[in-house]
Amino acid sequence: MSFLARIRVGRQVPLRFVRSIQISADTTKLQDEPHHTEPFTVKLHEHSFLGYKCEPPKLDVEVTKEELLLMYGQMQTMRRMEMAADAAYKAQLIHGFCHLSIGQEAVSVGLEHGADANDRIISGYRCHPLVVLRGGTVAQVLGELMGKRTGVSHGKGGSMHMFTDTFRGGHGIVGAQVPIGTGIAFAQKYMGEKQATFALYGDGASNQGQVAEAFNMAKLWNLPVIFICENNQYGMGTSAERSSANTQFYTRGDTIPGLQVNGMDILATREATKFARKWAVEDGNGPLVMEFVTYRYGGHSMSDPGTTYRTREEIQRVRSTRDPIRGLQGYIEDWGLATPQELKLIDKEAKATVDAAVEEAKAAPEPLADDLFTGVYPVGDPTLTRRGREREEIHHY
How would you classify this enzyme at the top EC level (predicted)? Predict the structure, then answer.
């Protein structure tokens, strides 16, 4: 029995948060015969996108077997990494704040496959997959969570302070990344760069005043910034319906056009990202507000069981009928691109990668006392006089 047939019954069960957009993970259909070496065309569900003051992307998209398998492997690796972080936290190897994105893999991986390698991405604290996809490693993320010198921020930042050259951080102040991302886009325009900035925030952060202020400035200056609301239905323990008078987050930009996207289907998130980038950079239309409708399986953070404000049945219903990894698995198997046995080999490779990263992070040394004042300024910064810099620091630069 095919994957689609196995879950078709479950698809009839309505979830209370479904509005007018389709958020199943497996509704894309073949248009051409699938090909093992050449691109072929598939058609997204007609309700994969909803536009606000703009025409939504086309539903016919090109895919390749190679990219589908790559995305599948990346999503499996991201989920196993987050599961490993969960286990390490419970084993008291990780302390402090830790926010996992299990269930939201189609957002991070789809975003990466739709963006340009030199675009900038900035996010909140549910950011671990983006760090890996933007140049970090699983070992660096887990090392950072465990407070080790091999971490991406040398063990001094933890979950909320991870950076790479093109990922400008997970930020702990709710909504603060949105005006920062707007500033990055301003710099891109000022410097004449043909790149975009993707600023991600949650439905809980959407009511922050600084978010509205950033929208206004971005529109005034026509900046190449895409504001992305990861609507996973709950801001901490409060449902979107209880916290927001307007739960259509893609319409929040007022004069800024918006796009609501099925955030559980990776082909929809990839295509929406491509559309947004073209809108902002190539066509010069300025900012766009996107809403990825998704779902987190776990609690808000490791201190939240996630079942006091929603039922276990709701979570299980999403897991069994709308899981983004199972959805992509269904495409690959039903289109004859790989067998279940071949996909299991990819699963094993993802597990081996994460298991090795866990052991590497465990064995890594902790930061030294001398590391306390390093990393405050960029290496090679030529500015020798700056408020806060001590005289003895200067010889390091």
Answer: oxidoreductase
Asked if residue 77 belongs to a domain, the reply is: yes
Give the model's pLDDT for residue 372.
81
> What is the β-pairing status of strands 60-63 and 167-170?
unpaired
Is residue 170 one of the residues assigned to a domain? yes
Cβ neighbours around 359 below 10 Å, total: 12
Q: What's the domain range around 76?
A: 3-233+257-369
Nearest of 130, 153, 128, 217 to residue 181 by alpha carbon: 217
Q: Which two tokens stand for residue 395?
A: 């010889």
**Look-up of token digits 């939201």:** 104
pLDDT for the residue numbered 393 = 59
Rounded distance between C-alpha atoms, residue 150 and residue 367, angstroms: 9
Instruction: Report if residue 252 sits inside a domain.
Output: no
Q: Tokens representing 118?
A: 């030199």
Here the CATH number for the domain that contains residue 97 is: 3.40.50.970
Q: For position 10, what pLDDT does the model report?
A: 37
Q: Which pTM value belongs to this model? A: 0.90
- pLDDT number for residue 28: 94
Q: What is the pLDDT of residue 391?
A: 60
Ranges of residues in the chain with a pLDDT under 70 are 1-19, 377-397
Residues 159-191 as b or e (16 or more Cβ within 10 Å = b): bbbbbbebbbbbbbebbbbbbbbbbbbbebbee
Tally the domains of the chain. 1
CA distance 242 to 223: 32
Half-sphere exposure of 66 (CA within 13 A, CB side): 3
Measured distance CA(149)–CA(127) in Å, rounded: 20
Side chain identity at 89, as an amino acid letter? Y
